[in-house]
Amino acid sequence: MSTTTRIDDLPLREELRGKSPYGAPQLDVPVRLNTNESPYPAPEDLVRRIAERVSEAARGLNRYPDRDAVVLRTRLADYLSRTAGLRLGPNRVWAANGSNEVLQQLLQAFGGPGRTALGFDPSYSMHALISRSTGTGWVSGPRTEEFAIDTHAAVAAIREHRPHVVFVCSPNNPTGTAVSPETVLALYEAAQEAARDRRGALFVVDEAYAEFSHRPSLLPLIEGRPTFVLTRTMSKAFGAAGLRLGYLAADAAVVDAVQLVRLPYHLSAITQATAHAALEFADTLLGYVEELKAERDRIVAELTALGCDVTESDANFVQFGRFADAQAVWRRLLDHGVLVRDNGVPGRLRVTTGTRAENDAFLDAVRAVMKEIA
Ligand code: PMP
């Protein structure tokens, strides 16, 4: 007799029962603008350089990789020093398999059962999901109607909940909105004040989309603030989502702390070699970012001209609406061969900036759908 075991039949942790995994649909359609990837494949010179560095690494695969990825962290520190306004050494940078793993390590070290994390929704859904999977309580803080963080309301939420970890995503996914350094500092101070009796609160600024912003990086704010952490990724600006390389910059003590929870040899020699090659091509890849920023601004302007309600964007994607039934519009755009993202923000959808041709196809599809639903 064959029976099918369902997830609820398993001795699963209670807090995971009835929950869904993270899941942006991976559909095979002509124009895929739903997961904030770069539309540009790696240039051939970079592909060749990766092959060279990976071959070199392959010769040593009988050995475990550099456990602390010191050379890679040095290159990442150099990149931040050069582009983000603060000179850093490798002791202040940590790397893992995507910034998701960095966030998980931070919550393993600074969250956990009996502790609480607070973020400002709608924001990157993995902040709440990783909190839950590490046993950390989640509190959803407020945003304004325009998806900004109101300093006064946010400080009040921090004072009320006294979180152990605070997440600020800037530029924010899925809205595209950036947060000013003044607001970030006010929230940081409030979080430290509210947690004064327990050595402060970890304050995480997720800058996954920093390179696409009209504003400078918030990196210099980590200086002199030992609980202030900034996270970054090579998935977006470096066009390397498939590589799985994320990193953080913080006080050296935070880097020591995440080493208490990281798995030994978590970053494969192949990953380290590939990331190293991509960093050698940073200037070329940042050139693509400039093209994407111009295209992003064009999407904002054209959607606005079409009569959409568009959220100002500092990222490589644009939130637009307002639709009576966003899910129905999502479906219709898909029927026109264009996949965008429904993040569950009422009346809104999110489109990732693609190539010029993809963006034209998206804008044509929006024009057609707006006629259909008019
Ligand atoms: N932070 C934000 C705000 C994101 O949007 C994403 C990816 N969508 C990540 C972190 C995780 O990126 P990765 O794990 O690919 O570095």
Automatic annotation (TrEMBL):
Question: Residues bearing N6-(pyridoxal phosphate)lysine?
Answer: 236
Superkingdom of this protein's organism:
Bacteria
Needs which cofactor?
Answer: pyridoxal 5'-phosphate
Q: Which UniProt keywords apply?
A: Amino-acid biosynthesis, Aminotransferase, Histidine biosynthesis, Pyridoxal phosphate, Transferase
Q: What class of enzyme is it?
A: transferase
Question: InterPro entries given for it?
Answer: Aminotrans_II_pyridoxalP_BS, Aminotransferase_I/II_large, HisP_aminotrans, PyrdxlP-dep_Trfase, PyrdxlP-dep_Trfase_major, PyrdxlP-dep_Trfase_small
Keyword match Glycosyltransferase: no
Q: Name one GO molecular function term.
A: histidinol-phosphate transaminase activity
Q: Which residues form the Aminotransferase class I/classII large domain?
A: 31-365
User: Under which pathway is this protein filed?
Assistant: Amino-acid biosynthesis; L-histidine biosynthesis; L-histidine from 5-phospho-alpha-D-ribose 1-diphosphate: step 7/9
Q: Which Gene3D superfamilies match?
A: Aspartate Aminotransferase, domain 1, Type I PLP-dependent aspartate aminotransferase-like (Major domain)
The protein's matches in NCBIfam families, at most eight in alphabetical order, are given as: hisC (TIGR01141), PRK03317.1 (NF002877)
User: Of which family is this protein a member?
Assistant: Belongs to the class-II pyridoxal-phosphate-dependent aminotransferase family. Histidinol-phosphate aminotransferase subfamily.
The protein in question is named Histidinol-phosphate aminotransferase
Originating organism: Streptomyces boetiae
Lineage, top ranks: Bacteria, Bacillati, Actinomycetota, Actinomycetes, Kitasatosporales
